[in-house]
Design brief:
Shape: globular
Largest sheet: 6 strands, parallel
Number of strands: 9
Oligomer: single chain
Low-confidence stretches: none
Number of helices: 5
């Protein structure tokens, strides 16, 4: 059984809360404690065969980071470190937080940006979820009728988050078996 690495970017703490909930659901035997991406290196991520990676989307579809107005470094500052990294043989499950009512034209775009970056590094992905039940105009995280990972809207559909998270974890559990 592979140990799962959980990494997240955050500013307000919502992505961190989701990461902690995921860790609690998986348990210490299966997953290491979640790590804020601002405190991680590419080698930290590469030390795992299976990764769960999360991000919120900021502003007009931006990765969290200093130019997006976060109080600390995050994914924006980490992304250049991925240049030349080889994630071949790594399995990644992504989750993203967004606000479909406030930002319908770039809903969870940062999730799509993470997908593209890690795909360019050779990673394999699990955990795509249906776009059904969301109302938005455009998203870099949507591929046809699926998002590239779990999408949570804590602003407008918080009551659906627990069920969505549980279903997603069940969907991806074969990745670490």
């Amino acid at each position: 059984m592979a140990k799962v690495g959980i990494f997240f970017g955050t500013d307000t703490g919502n992505s961190r809360k989701v990461a902690k909930t995921i860790h609690k659901q998986l348990g210490d035997e299966l997953a290491d404690k979640p790590v804020n991406i601002s405190k991680a290196t590419v080698d930290d991520l590469l030390s795992y065969e299976v990764l769960i990676i999360g991000t919120p989307t900021y502003g007009d579809g931006e990765l969290p980071g200093l130019t997006a107005g976060t109080s600390a470094e995050s994914w924006e500052e980490f992304m250049p470190q991925l240049a030349g990294a080889d994630f071949s043989g790594k399995t990644i499950a992504l989750y993203g937080l967004g606000d479909q009512a406030g930002y319908p034209d770039n809903f969870v775009d940062a999730l799509g940006m993470l997908y593209d970056a890690f795909a360019d590094c050779g990673a394999s992905f699990v955990g795509a979820t249906s776009t059904e039940g969301y109302t938005y105009n455009s998203s870099k995280a949507a591929m046809g009728d699926e998002f590239v990972g779990l999408v949570l809207d804590e602003d407008n559909q918080k009551e659906l988050s627990d069920d969505r998270l549980q279903a997603w974890l069940k969907q991806i559990e074969s990745s670490w078996a």
